[in-house]
Write a structure and sequence with these properties.
8 strands, alpha/beta, 8 helices
Length: 247
Amino acid sequence: MAAPALIALAHGSRDPRSAATINDLVAEVRRQRPDLRIEAAFLEHSRPGFSTVVDRLVRAGHEEIVVVPLLLSDAYHAKVDVPTAIAEANARHESVRIRASEILGLESAFLQILDERLRAALKSARVRELDALVLAAAGSSDALANQAVARLARVWGSRHKLPVTAAFASSAPPATGEAVRAFRAEGRRHIAVASLFLAPGSLPDRAAELAIEAGAVAVSDPLGAHPEVARTVLARYAVGAVELVPV
């Protein structure tokens, strides 16, 4: 029996850097599992669209598809957009089993990537001293999603024995600039910001801009096409594939 196909489903962005990063991530997933049929798809703004990719896989003879949502927070896109897209695909292809896995989420393993990205930013800025950290994320109107970011921020700060604040690019306070200014008001002057975004785009750009304006000494790049993110995609796929097995 052939393994289910894997669709790595991103939200999509008008910023071409975002789609390029997602495609690089999917290429890394393929390198780790060359035996699988793996495709990238987007809910909006970027191509190929989700329905286009599903149709392509069905034409190729795939009868089972696991969709891994490339989302870090369990908010509106995860709770509404993805289930809606899956339901529409199942309605169009009643003989094909299409299931969504859990989202990528906020894996503790991603803290390793944050550290790598931040070390690179600090080296570029020639900064050797830190006395506070800010973890910048997209933000959501869903309070539980924001609380999950705050929890990850506390774990990250405890690793480095530094005070840390979660900040958000939209929908919730504080913004990155506010978080940096709050630390500066405490007398801290070496404040770095880590970007808890999967890919570049307008939100991480704005978060970085506000942080630098407020006095941050460095802002890291998003997580990007890191092998650890690819491994998480495959871990989500593995659970989703098992759930497709008839009991």
